């Protein structure tokens, strides 16, 4: 048990189960003394989340579908009542209709595009609007992205476009909120087998490809991303804002297939 996050209070959004990236970050923060609140989408996930939250000493487990402005308001009103102030938020939320996470991006209908960008990008801005008001001594806002924002990845499609907008929003909000001592960053994680990832076509192939072609010749673990999340939320990253930090075993630097990788 360390003390890096001692005295800091924060909100974790996006734990669906114990394989969620949000949960990996929550565990890392709790192990350093951070105090946590959680949100979930729908009662079924709430049921799964409560025992996890309790295991890290949190009783603050609140419903929040991020497509609903009133639901986001309710979360931050409750946090203001309970804590008065806030030090950090993790936004680990993304969604697109899986019908469009295969085939061609160019075929994405308007409705699917707007929903993907609303849930996966605008929600972080909506959260930042409320959270920043409670960050009276400065703070750290963190979201999760993927390399599909920067390069074309098979099947990532509309999610890649939404993540590109999300990464741009990280930079704009970092500029807006910097004067208040609020930092805004993203971790761009390598592929991890989570509930959200299971919606992406050929995900097992993507995992194998990354494993064999990353400089570290493996896939990232949940703990790798948890540790990077802890860094971004703690004062260790006090001088870092507007950054998209790759935690992908180095895959983003690679220009072509590793010649000694096996055929997959
Ligand atoms: P996950 O399924 O565990 O988490 C996704 C979360 O998004 C779930 O908790 C779900 O309830 C939540 N969510 C979806 N729609 C919502 C809504 N309308 N309101 C509130 N919550 C909603 O999967 P994960 O892989 O841990 O995903 C977390 C983040 O990490 C996502 O932004 C994802 O795009 C990103 N990411 C994942 C990978 C990967 O390979 N798993 C890689 C890079 C980035």
- Report the sheet-strand fraction: 5-15%
Compute the CA-based radius of gyration: 18 Å
Largest sheet: 7 strands, parallel
Bound molecules: nicotinamide-adenine-dinucleotide
Strand order of the largest sheet: 3-2-1-4-5-6-7
How many strands? 7
Query: Which structural category fits the helices and strands?
Result: alpha/beta
Give average pLDDT, whole number: 97
End-to-end distance, in Å?
A: 41 Å
* Helix proportion: 40-55%
Shape: globular
H/E topology pattern: EHEHEHEHEHEHHE
Poorly predicted regions: none
Helical segment count: 7
Written overview of the protein:
- With 264 residues, this protein is an alpha/beta fold.
- Helix content is 41%, strand content 14%.
- It is built from seven helices and seven strands; from the N terminus they run βαβαβαβαβαβααβ.
- A seven-stranded parallel beta sheet has the order 3-2-1-4-5-6-7, sandwiched between helices.
- Strand 5, helix 5 (157-177) and strand 6 form a beta-alpha-beta unit.
- Helix 1 (21-30) crosses helix 7 (222-233), helix 3 packs parallel to helix 4 and helix 4 packs parallel to helix 5.
- It binds nicotinamide-adenine-dinucleotide (NAD).
- Nicotinamide-adenine-dinucleotide (NAD) binds next to helix 1 and strand 5.
């Amino acid at each position: 048990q360390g003390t890096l996050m001692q005295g800091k209070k924060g909100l974790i959004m996006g734990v669906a189960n114990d394989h969620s990236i949000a949960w990996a970050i929550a565990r890392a923060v709790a192990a350093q003394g951070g105090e946590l609140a959680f949100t979930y989408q729908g009662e079924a996930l709430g049921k799964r989340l409560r025992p996890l939250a309790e295991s890290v000493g949190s009783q603050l487990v609140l419903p929040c579908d991020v497509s609903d402005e009133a639901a986001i308001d309710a979360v931050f009103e409750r946090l203001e009542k309970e804590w008065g102030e806030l030090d950090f938020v993790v936004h680990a939320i993304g969604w697109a209709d899986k019908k469009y996470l295969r085939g061609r991006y160019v075929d994405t209908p308007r409705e699917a595009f707007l929903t993907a960008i609303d849930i996966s990008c605008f929600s972080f801005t909506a959260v930042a609007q409320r959270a920043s008001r409670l960050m009276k001594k400065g703070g750290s806002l963190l979201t999760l992205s993927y390399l599909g924002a920067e390069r074309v990845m098979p099947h990532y499609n509309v999610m890649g476009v939404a993540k590109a907008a999300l990464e741009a929003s990280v930079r704009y909000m970092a500029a807006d909120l910097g004067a208040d001592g609020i930092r805004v960053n993203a971790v761009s994680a390598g592929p991890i087998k989570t509930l959200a990832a299971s919606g992406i076509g050929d995900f097992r192939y993507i995992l194998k490809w990354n494993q064999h072609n990353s400089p570290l010749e493996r896939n990232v673990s949940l703990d790798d991303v948890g540790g990077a999340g802890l860094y971004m939320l703690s004062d260790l990253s006090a001088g870092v804002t507007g950054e998209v930090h790759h935690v992908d075993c180095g895959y983003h630097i690679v220009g072509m297939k590793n010649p000694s990788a096996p055929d997959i």
